[in-house]
Amino acid sequence: MLKLWSLITAFGLAAFPGFPAEQNSSLLKGRLLLPGIVSTGLFERDFTLSSDGKEIYFTVMGPGFSVIMTTSFIKGKWTSPVPASFSGHREYFDAEPFLSDDGRRLYFLSTRPLPGESAPSGWGYENIWVVKKKKHEWGKPVPLDNAVNNGDNNYCPTLSKEGVLFFTRSPRGGKREAFLYQAIRTSDGLYLSERLPFPLNSHSFQFNSCVDPEGNFLLFISSGHEKNFNINDIWASFYSEEKGWSHPVNLGTCVNFPGGNAVSVSLTPDGKTIVFASRFLNTEQIPPVLTYENIHLFVQGPQNGSSDLYAISADILLPLREQARWDEE
After folding, report:
1. Do residue 127 and residue 243 come from a single domain?
2. pLDDT tens across 13-23, in order?
3. 67, 170, 244, 327: which could form a disulfide with 178 (CB 3.0–4.6 Å)?
4. Which residues pair with 166 in a beta bridge?
C-alpha cells in the first residue's frame, strides 16, 4: 500500500496524525491522496476531514448510486472505508459531505425527499441536509430550511469558521446554469441566503465551491471557461474586507493538469491543504502488453479515467493572491 507523502509544514498536514511523516520533494503539484483507501478504481470525489485528522468522509459514485463513505485512522493505519451510518440507501443519492469545525454536524447533498414531498429517482432533486452527532453516533438527517432549500437544486455545502454557509444553486428542469451562494444564520436560527456578488458568478457555469475556514478565499469549479485547461477547472477568488471578492483566477496546471477534469474541491480544517477530485487517465499505467489479468489490475487502480482524490499545498495560492485583481484596480 502506498503511503500518503508527508507534507510537514509546507503541506499543512503536520497537525493531523493520520497522515504519515514521509518526505516528498513534490509539494506543489497535485498528488494522489491515500491510494488504495480513498483513491482506487472507483469513482471517488468530495473530502472532509475531522479536526484531529483521524476521520475522513468522501463520496463514491456509480451507475445508480451515490454513497458517503468514511474511513478512520486507527492503530497507525486507515481502515477500509464503509458507508456512513446515515448513507448507503439505494433509493436516494448522497454526496458532498462537509464536517463542521467541532465535528458535531455534517452537511451534505441528498436526493431524499423533503418532508411532505415525493422525490423523483436519480439526480435533479437536490437539497442540503445536516446530521448531528449524539455522543459518538450520527442522528437522523434533517433538511435545512427553505431559505436554502428553496425549490431549486441546492448542493455542495461548506462553512467558514464564522458559520457562513456557502453552496451552489441551479434551476430544476434541465437548464444548464449554476450560481454560487452564501447563507447567514440569523438570531432566530433560520438562514438568510444571497447570491454572491460580481465578480463571482461572472462565469457561464460555476459550481461546487469551498470556502477557506477563515473566509479569506473561495475555491470553485468553472466549466467551459475560455481560460480553462480542461472542460472543468478549479478557480480561486480572494476576499478583502475593503474590496470584497477579487476577480477569479485559474489555479493552473498543478491542479488542473491537462487531460484531467475537475469534479470537486475541498480544504483541510486548517485551510493549508487543498484536496480535489479529478477524472484523469494515466496512459503510462496501461500495460504495454495487455492480458485479461493486468487489465483487471489497471481498472481496479487509480488514474484509470475515473475520479480520484488528490492533495496539494494551499501555498500554490500565494502568488495568485499577489496577482489578484479587484474592480477598482
Report:
1. no
2. 444 444 444 43
3. 170
4. 158, 182
